[in-house]
Amino acid sequence: MARPPTAAQRRVIDAADPVTGQLKGTDAQLAALVARGLAFRHPRPPHDHFLTPAGHRIREGADVQPPPEPAAPTAAGAFAARVGGEEQAPESGPARAREVHSAWQGLLELRRMTNPDGATDRPCAWERTHLVQAAALALEAAGHRPSGAEPADGYRVRATPQPEAVAVYEAAAEARRACATTLERAGWQVGEHTEPRTGNRYLLASPRRT
Q1: Which of 127, 134, 156, 199 could disulfide-pair with 169, CB 3.0 to 4.6 Å?
Q2: Distance between terminal CA atoms of the chain?
Q3: DSSP state of 141
Q4: Higher confidence at residue 187 or residue 102?
Q5: HEC per residue, 44-86
Q6: CA-to-CA distance for 49 and 26, rounded, in angstroms?
Q7: Tens digit of pLDDT for each residue in 127-154?
Q8: What is the C-alpha separation between 203 and 129, in angstroms, rounded?
Q9: What segments bear the compositional bias annotation Low complexity (predicted)?
């Protein structure tokens, strides 16, 4: 298990901006937090540092440690969005809810910092290169439940041959409409389609540009 942050690092974490997670500290302190996966350095000048979801959890007092390097990290740090269909049952409970909330807030902050006009109501460049993870995070953050390994109730987000488009599968029509509403509110363009061979209904979603 990873060592807890030092007293000096903890003071830097506790002093982070409660909304954006922006950090202030010495170069050595900030570099150490980045190395631990508790902070990330913004790529654009002035290269400020911000808490990752793991850092937010430390600040909020959750008794958890930074997870190992994930297979599918989000922009905000060490976090894997639930795309549906995972072999293991999706995690649930307060810890997962905090993790999802922190990741979504981090993504909104990334939109603010990287969209040319600072808009948070439409996807940013990172989301356009991580379509499946971005759409899944928007759904999970809004309270939608991903499906398990067996195709039952719950959403599944999958890549498509179309550029900048993902398919969202949800068996129940009402739940499918709710997913569409969530994605539209998160800045995605959504249409409902039917697979010619199976007759299954699904959503085709693309990040909105304006």
Answers
A1: 156
A2: 44
A3: H
A4: 187
A5: CCCCCEEECHHHHHHHCCCCCCCCCCCCCEECCEEEECCCCCC
A6: 11
A7: 999 999 999 999 999 999 998 866 567 9
A8: 19
A9: 72-81
